[in-house]
Amino acid sequence: MDLLIKNIGMLFDGYRFIKNTSVYIENGIIKNIGENQKAEEVVDANGNFVMPGFIDSHTHIAFAGYRDFEIEWKIEGLSYEEIARRGGGILYTVEQTKKASKERIIKEMEERAEQMFFHGTTTIEVKSGYGLDKENEIKLLEAINEMKSHASIIPTFLAHAIPRGYDGDEYTDYIINEILPEAGKLAKFADVFCEKGYFNVEQSERILRKAKEYGMGVKIHADEFSCMGCSKLAAKLEASSADHLLMADDESLWEMKKAGVIATLLPATPFVLNEPYPDARKMLNMGLDIAIATDMNPNCYVGNMQFIIQLAVYKLRMPVIEALKAVTTNAAKALNLKDVGSIEIGKKADVIILNAKSPDFIPYHIGTNLVETIIKDGKIYSK
Ligand code: NIG
Ligand code: FE
User: Helices in the chain by DSSP H: which ranges?
Assistant: First the structure.
């Protein structure tokens, strides 16, 4: 089976822009880029903008228990911490998630992933973290592995919060001794919410070092509300990514750069929490590789990567080309993926065609879905 995407007005291949070209695909793999090719099946891009499918490298879609009731508190000006103290936050979702069957979690996740797919996302990282005890964390990881999706799913075990009645060190031991041996078989990555009131640096390090022994890649929710050395830990452990980074100081950022850690920024989270944004321009000037992702979760319910690009451009003041790298090549690096993220010979054909004449249309057209055709592993899906 071969397929040609012809009449591409502008192509972003993951690195740069190429005008007036076509992409030739055989058995789901990109075989050629250039003009004048033929194939059994032809998709006409009509002069539009084409790029790799979005890679959403940080999501928490494995949950039951929406938190729309928090909106009222958010507009009153309550902080994330105050909302948690009032009975919202992670622990509210944990209670609801524990009550839900694996089948229900799968169904809810499949609906979320489907919406994301038709907004152009062809790879989705999904974290556990709303189960907390072994039974429920494994339930979530199994659900993530068993769910059906047009998008590729990358499972991550997340140490997310200390359950009520537990001491942090005790719960860290529980994760290491009880959860990780099983989670190690079900998840590609381990992640920790390293933050005041959640896991401290030492506990995070213990969890992630153990995870490495199980062959898992590591990620850290780092320096979101306070700078306590979590992104430095990411550098020390040579993590694939450190995520959030609103409060990360320069020293930590330099160490991340030296260690090759991807800086994953999640601008929809400060957007819904009314908080300042991370300094992406400084990070770019330092030469850090930036990925951007939705962080889709019950606090920040967004699966549309086009909106994330809009926030990256207007709020993080990232040049459009950097925002596009951040959802393709750099996002693939954040997930240690070698076969997707760019349109190059030999890569998987995960490609999207947008109703846009130029890449700038993505930040320019706010709030609409510009993605018209999604090609996943060489198969064509139209909106
Ligand atoms: O990445 N920061 C920690 N975890 C999520 C939020 C989870 C929640 O509020 O339910 C995040 O933003
Ligand atoms: Fe997160």
Answer: 70-76, 80-85, 89-99, 102-117, 134-146, 168-174, 180-186, 201-213, 230-236, 250-259, 268-273, 280-286, 305-314, 320-326, 329-334, 361-364
